[in-house]
Every structure is written in structure tokens, then in C-alpha cells.
Amino acid sequence: MVVADWAIHLGFPDPVAAYRGAYDSKESSEAFVAAAGGLVPIFEAGNASIGWVKVDRPQVGAVGVIGARDNWSKQMGAIFDGGHWQVFQQPGWIALMAVPLAIWAAPVSSASARRSSHELCENFNTFFSFPIRLDETGAQPLEPLRMPLRSTWA
């Protein structure tokens, strides 16, 4: 659900509003994901509900599912920082190199891409409490983010 909080932070509706409260323990969470067929179908439905589109390549701020394609218990939701997939594991964020199983991004028109990149940086700064700097084109981070290993929700 932490990845859904990223969409909310960006000003989108809650992509998993229909699922909040659907489970209350690790066991019921696992049963919920198993019944859905894994995280990809859950992410697909949630992202479609807020207008995010499935994409082939990650871009800064995109969300995805990473992990084992054939083992949903080894799948994780993640946010792409421009170089790594950020995964929330107590006590905080961990940067991983991974091949995503599926990726979704907020729709951005090409005319507003530069402005939106700067806005994403500001949102990264507040969501992750970690600075991000863009290159001279305003499209890519100068370096992959290294998130602090602490929770911003603690």
C-alpha cells in the first residue's frame, strides 16, 4: 500500500481505495494477493482506476511490480527513481536493481514533461525526505537516488 501512497502524494486518487481494509494480518494479506493472482493484477486494476498507463520502460516516478514472475509471494511494489527501484521494507526504503514484471506511469504530455520532471523531484524530496537533482535537460536525475533506510511513516 506504500506505493499507492506515492500516487496520492502526487495528487491522484487512492489507487487501492477498494482494497484498503481487505486484510488485517500477514496471513489475510497473503490470501488476498493469492486470490487476485499476484500483485500485477492488483496494480493493473488500481492504476487503471486513477488513469495511470502501462508502459514498457520505467521513467522517474513510475511504479511497478518487481520480483519473481511465477511466485507472487516474491513480488514487491516499487517506485522508480531513475536508476533503481525503491522498495519499502521496514525500517525504510531500499534501492534495488530489478527487471520489472509490469510498469505504470502517470500520463504526462510531452509539452509538460520538463515541468513535470521538476515537480516530480519536489515530490520525491518530500515523499522520501531525500534530495534529487536533475540534469541540464530537466529530464533525468544526475545520479540514482540512495534513499535513507528509515521510514517516513514512522
Summarize the structure.
With 154 residues, the protein is α+β, with helices and mostly antiparallel strands. It is 30% helix and 19% strand.
Q: Could you describe the 3D structure shown?
A:
The chain has 154 residues and is of the alpha+beta class. The protein has one domain (2-128). 30% of the residues lie in helices and 19% in strands. The protein has helices spanning 2-9, 26-36, 39-49, 113-128; strands spanning 53-55, 63-67, 75-80, 85-89, 92-96, 100-105. Strands 1-6-2-3-4-5 form a six-stranded antiparallel beta sheet, covered by helices on one side. The longest helix is centred in the last third of the chain and has 16 residues, at 113-128. The chain is globular. The two termini are 15 Å apart.
List the helices and strands and how they pair.
Elements: H1 2-9, H2 26-36, H3 39-49, E1 53-55, E2 63-67, E3 75-80, E4 85-89, E5 92-96, E6 100-105, H4 113-128
The first-to-last residue Cα distance is 15 Å
The biggest beta sheet, please? 6 strands, antiparallel
Q: How many beta-strand segments?
A: 6
Low-confidence stretches: 110-115, 144-154
Quickly give the structural class: alpha+beta
**Number of domains as seen in the coordinates:** 1
Order of helices and strands: HHHEEEEEEH
> What general outline do the C-alpha atoms trace?
globular
Radius of gyration, in Å, reads 15 Å
Secondary structure tally, helices: 4
Chain oligomer state: single chain
Strand order of the largest sheet: 1-6-2-3-4-5
Helicity range = 25-40%
Which band does the percent of strand residues land in? Answer: 15-25%
Average pLDDT figure: 76
